[in-house]
């Protein structure tokens, strides 16, 4: 039977990568329906859908009857969630409830792929070992608490009468991610230095933290493999999406320096210090590997280079558009 896959939050960083991945992974006859909150971008065929509007979500699911629903829509920035806790709970929790209830009522037999976060483990990371899906959820931030609550709500709604896969991706990055996140924040600064738009000084926050980083293209491939392999999965399942390899934040500066081929000074900026910092976040992704054979494939150096090239292109085009100079020569790999 052909699949009909509905995606919420399709125009975001992960959503755009997922659409590209699915176009390559799905067989002919499968259909992908992209949805997003207005305003809709002109470059992407997309239906308007506000996951906060329960009636609209119910009507969309009743009309489309997806076999699979991938719920990406949400407030994804931990610092923004800390500034706007009410909005974080409204979007991340109430939005997930609306989607899960609509799947249960209007797409019987359909699967919900609920995208959570590894941050739900929170203080459990202080044990210092890689955590698997059985680890205690002890979220330490507004964002993480809202995602843990969203998981619980989806599980309660679909446990008896639906199919649910919860994924907990660890830090993922790649081309197209904005400067609210650490790797593109560094890369954008390096790209400005590379183009002569800024002095060779990089402002940074805490460099000692260690994180399990993934390329977003590996992450969305995991989501695609879950969709393709969903018939072989339990009715309710939870998977970490993790590389199993820790990287110190400070080492990313060395990787960017190597990729850019330019020198810069590093200065600590207290404004960039995230609160409630957990020193190490290590993940165990063995369950997903056992179930579907998924493993990360993209080399970290390729990830860093792609992000730096993406920012270099974007900034060069902005520079040309505002009349301050011609576009720079294409970056490595362009």
From TrEMBL:
Source taxon at top rank: Bacteria
Domain NAD-dependent epimerase/dehydratase stretches: 5-241
Pfam families attached to this UniProt entry: Epimerase
Pathway: Bacterial outer membrane biogenesis; LPS O-antigen biosynthesis
Similarity annotation: Belongs to the NAD(P)-dependent epimerase/dehydratase family.
Descriptive protein name: GDP-6-deoxy-D-lyxo-4-hexulose reductase
UniProt source species: Chelatococcus reniformis
Lineage, opening ranks: Bacteria, Pseudomonadati, Pseudomonadota, Alphaproteobacteria, Hyphomicrobiales
């Amino acid at each position: 039977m052909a699949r009909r896959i509905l995606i919420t939050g399709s125009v975001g960083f992960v959503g755009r990568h997922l659409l590209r991945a699915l176009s390559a992974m799905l067989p002919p006859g499968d259909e992908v329906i992209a949805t997003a909150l207005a305003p809709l971008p002109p470059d992407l065929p997309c239906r308007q859908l506000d996951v906060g509007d329960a009636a609209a979500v119910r009507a969309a699911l009743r009309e489309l009857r997806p076999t699979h629903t991938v719920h990406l829509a949400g407030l994804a920035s931990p610092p923004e969630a800390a500034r706007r806790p009410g909005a974080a709970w409204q979007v991340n929790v109430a939005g997930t409830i609306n989607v899960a209830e609509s799947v249960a009522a209007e797409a019987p037999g359909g699967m919900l792929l609920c995208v959570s976060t590894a941050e739900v483990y929170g203080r459990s990371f202080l044990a210092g070992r890689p955590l698997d899906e059985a680890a205690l959820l002890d979220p330490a931030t507004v964002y993480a608490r809202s995602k843990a609550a969203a998981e619980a709500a989806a599980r309660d709604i679909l446990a008896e009468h639906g199919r649910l896969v919860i994924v907990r991706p660890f830090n993922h990055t790649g081309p197209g991610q904005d400067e609210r996140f650490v790797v593109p924040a560094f890369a954008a600064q390096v790209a400005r230095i590379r183009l002569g738009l800024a002095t060779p000084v990089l402002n940074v926050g805490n460099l000692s933290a260690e994180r399990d980083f993934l390329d977003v293209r590996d992450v969305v491939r995991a989501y695609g493999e879950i969709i393709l392999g969903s018939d072989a999965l339990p009715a309710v399942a939870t998977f970490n999406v993790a590389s199993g390899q820790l990287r110190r934040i400070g080492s990313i500066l060395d990787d960017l320096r190597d990729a850019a081929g330019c020198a810069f000074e590093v200065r600590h900026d207290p404004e960039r210090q995230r609160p409630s910092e957990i020193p190490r976040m290590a993940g165990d992704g063995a369950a997903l590997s056992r179930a579907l054979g998924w493993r990360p494939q993209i080399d970290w150096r390729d990830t860093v280079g792609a992000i730096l090239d993406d920012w270099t292109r974007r900034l060069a085009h902005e520079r040309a558009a505002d009349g301050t100079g011609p576009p720079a020569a294409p970056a490595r790999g362009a």
